[in-house]
Amino acid sequence: MSPIHHTAAMGLLSSSSATILVALVLMSFFYVRSWLRMQRASANAIPGWRLASFLFGMSLVWAALGSPLVAYDHDLLTVHMIQHLLLMTFAPALILLGEPLLAFWHGLPRFGKIVLGPLFRRPLVQRFAHILSRPALCWSVSALTLVGWHVPALFTLGMHSEVWHCVEQASFLGAGFLFWAPVIQPWPGVSMGPQWSTLLYLFLATLPCDILSGFLLFSDRVAYPMYFSMPRHFGFSVLEDQQCAAALMWTCVTLVYLVPAAILSTRLLSPRSFSRGDLVQSELRGGAASQRDSQRLEIV
User: Fold this and answer.
1) Distance CA 23, CA 32 (A)
2) First to last CA, the chain
């Protein structure tokens, strides 16, 4: 990247960082306001740890898109990989654990619920949501997004064009939400199959990452020659930077996927505690649904 283009990119990043920060703060404020409103109605609506999870996830989105980390994005593949991990692996999972749709729905004014309620109940919308939440589709989209953007031609396109770079980052975040939806099953989603199928889903999800990271880690050639023209930081050579990025992705993805797999395995091996957890989850969903229905009755 030329010095002139680099300076222009830094100016664009500073303005976009401010926009991203404002958008994230507004969404977090609306979520917290809705959460407080739900707490006044029912103390068990959304636990406090889910609030903390949502806010932490939003802060990770800012760290990936608007923090000083972005300044090294075009210089180091390791930093570029950290951004991808934050956008696709960490932030979406934490945000979905916060039950954002449930909070945002209860935070809508009555007029918004009157307008959106019939729209969401339309068969076409429900059918589209059902198709979009299928594990096979979610896995395919996430795998294609991960592998596709690391093909050298697409990778170089994203690094040389700010527009395509934004498309790349948005696709990582969107694919992350799709990937984690069948695992976390946030409101108003429902289970798409037996619990053991989620373990298979998580195992299969590690395969594209293992193949990509293994190729980058054990290759003795630089996959992205454009980094030869970038300034070096922290004493890393281009090949060492590539190996560090691959090792980071391999380790983080494996450990993160291992957490829900271990939780699900424990539940499957402990039928009594698992059924009790299912009962609590169903009560929470049922309480939220009854609260929504009561609001609809008030509107009518």
Assistant:
1) 14
2) 60
Quote the CA–CA distance of 241 and 40 in Å, as a whole number: 51
259 by Cβ neighbours in 10 Å (0-12 / 13-18 / 19+) ranks as: exposed
Q: Which two tokens stand for residue 25?
A: 């703060």
Taking the C-alpha atoms of residue 246 and residue 249, their distance in angstroms, rounded to an integer, is 5
What is the rounded distance in angstroms from the CA atom of residue 227 to the CA atom of residue 229? 5
Q: How many CB atoms lie within 10 A of CB 57?
A: 21
Residue type present at position 191: S
**283-298 residue pLDDT tens:** 444 444 444 444 432 3
Residue found by looking up tokens 């404020």 in the block: 29
| CA dist., res. 178 & res. 139, Å (int) | 8
**Contact present, 256 and 70 (Cβ < 8 Å):** no
**pLDDT tens digits for range 141-163:** 999 999 999 999 999 999 999 89
pLDDT band, residue 130 (cuts 50/70/90): confident
pLDDT of the residue at 43: 63
CB 17 within 8 A of CB 70: yes
Kindly report the pTM of this predicted structure.
0.84
Cα separation of 139 and 25, whole Å?
30
Residues whose CB falls within 8 Å of the CB of residue 101, separated by 6 or more in sequence, listed in order:
186, 187, 188
Q: How far apart are CA 159 and CA 267, in angstroms?
A: 44
